[in-house]
Amino acid sequence: MKTDILVVGAGFAGAVIAERFASHGKSVLVIDKRSHIGGNAFDELDSAGVLVHRYGPHIFHTNAPHVEEYLSQFTEWRRYEHRVLSSVEGNLYPVPINLQTINQLYSLSLDEEGVAAFFENVREKRTPIRNSEDIVLNNVGRDLCDKFFRNYTRKQWGLDLSELSPAVAGRIPVRTNSDDRYFTDNFQSMPAEGYTRMFERMLDHPNIRIELNTDFRNVRNKVDATQTFYSGPLDAYFDFCFGKLPYRSLSFRHEHFAQKEQYQPVGTVNYPNDYEYTRITEFKHLTGQSHSGTSIVREFPETTGDPYYPVPTSENQALYQSYKKLADAESGTFFIGRLAEYRYYNMDQVVAAALLLSSKLLNNPR
């Protein structure tokens, strides 16, 4: 089987690579071991007719105009600003922690200056910053850490805050104002017809052929490609020769409520201290869909299963570097995306990286 380009994985990284090379006259074969395109951003109507994200909520946001412009070729957008509440001691509080959170939690009436002083008073100064616990304690102190962060992290990662790299908690902002949006990017919108429809348009090109339910291991020696773009787990590509890179997995329990228009007040509610699941997302908030019922998903972190999140510890990063040396030595194969690069990527970051790589290669073939 001969093709110019082999793309392994039909998520954001693979779809962008496939579209770019196909649009420049290259023949492209896209394979995916799942039965659908779109990767973890795949969405579809459930049995009740509600549009749901099968692999948990995907909220698109970016500060990169070129990413917005590129994806806008394949979708219209619905403006949506995500809001999250956290269930603590039976009450719901805005997260990221902000002025409203502090005033509600401690029955205060502070302004921005007062909240800044509050944080300064309760924080435990940590120097140097060695891990995520240091980050959180340094920012908001022990009580807020224990109420909002510590147990959520333990559920999500199976590790204590003190065992995770600073990058994990460093992603979580703390605000002194009353901005209760989860993201503050300039562009915050959802594909108007869903992610899957957007992916269908991206891959709808005469130069692109798609083969689903196809495992790379079964075809890697059967496809004659000039260049290969791999977005699967990096350790699997090299047959786990250094051992398995740890990933955190998730299981999803979807539920529909007939004749119930709304289940919760915002798109996502976190449960840091109660239950086995970490959060519940109600999809109609995200999509704006009108329906007499509503559908939700509960997320349960797991140790085994499909890989979703690279586990950010120094030991795991060292193991990744061993695999990266092998990857860098591969001729004609490029590794892109969250799993292949063993890093946490937002969707827009994946798109930006794929656009940059394809541009470099198309302008300077090697």
Would you mind describing this structure in some detail?
Its EC number is 5.4.99.9. It comes from Tunturiibacter psychrotolerans. Belongs to the UDP-galactopyranose/dTDP-fucopyranose mutase family. Residues 147-344 form the UDP-galactopyranose mutase C-terminal domain. Pfam families: GLF, NAD_binding_8. 35% of the residues lie in helices and 22% in strands. The chain has 366 residues and is α/β, with parallel strands linked by helices. The mean pLDDT is 96. The strands form four sheets. A seven-stranded mixed sheet has the order 8-7-13-14-15-12-16. It contains 13 helices and 17 strands. The chain folds into two domains: 2-80 and 188-244 and 310-363, NAD(P)-binding Rossmann-like Domain (Rossmann fold); 98-170, no CATH class. Helix 1 links the parallel strand 1 (2-8) and strand 2 (28-31).
